[in-house]
Write a structure and sequence with these properties.
Blueprint: H1 12-20, H2 35-48, E1 52-57, H3 60-73, E2 78-82, E3 87-90, E4 95-100
Parallel strand pairs: 1-4
Antiparallel strand pairs: 2-3, 3-4
């Protein structure tokens, strides 16, 4: 069975970050640069390869927006999800755990 995951296309600066990334990266980007889009790409790439990904957001509401966005993106490959635990599991064993960083 083959599934297709539809991600947003990264803009030129995001592609540069993706192509030049290292183990640790530091970025300074404006408010509308698209950090969440970049992080969605990285999170999907991580979990579809069977690895664990932790997702942190400053407040609960932002975390819920990110959870819903990734839930929709990963819908074709979701093996299990728990809104109460804020966790998405994909086919192949990958997991994204969401955490609010407000406390």
């Amino acid at each position: 069975m083959e599934a297709t995951i539809q991600l947003l296309k990264p803009h030129e600066a995001q592609r540069r970050v993706l192509n030049e990334r290292k183990r640790r990266n530091v970025m300074c980007n404006g408010r509308r640069w698209g950090k969440n889009v970049l992080l969605q790409i990285l999170a999907v790439e991580t979990c579809i390869h069977g690895r664990f990904c932790g997702w942190g957001a400053p407040v609960y509401r932002q975390m819920m927006d990110d959870y819903r966005a990734l839930e929709n993106i990963l819908a074709p490959v979701v093996a299990g999800k728990s809104k109460s635990e804020m966790r998405i599991e994909v086919v192949g064993g990958g997991v994204i755990d969401f955490h609010s960083l407000d406390k």
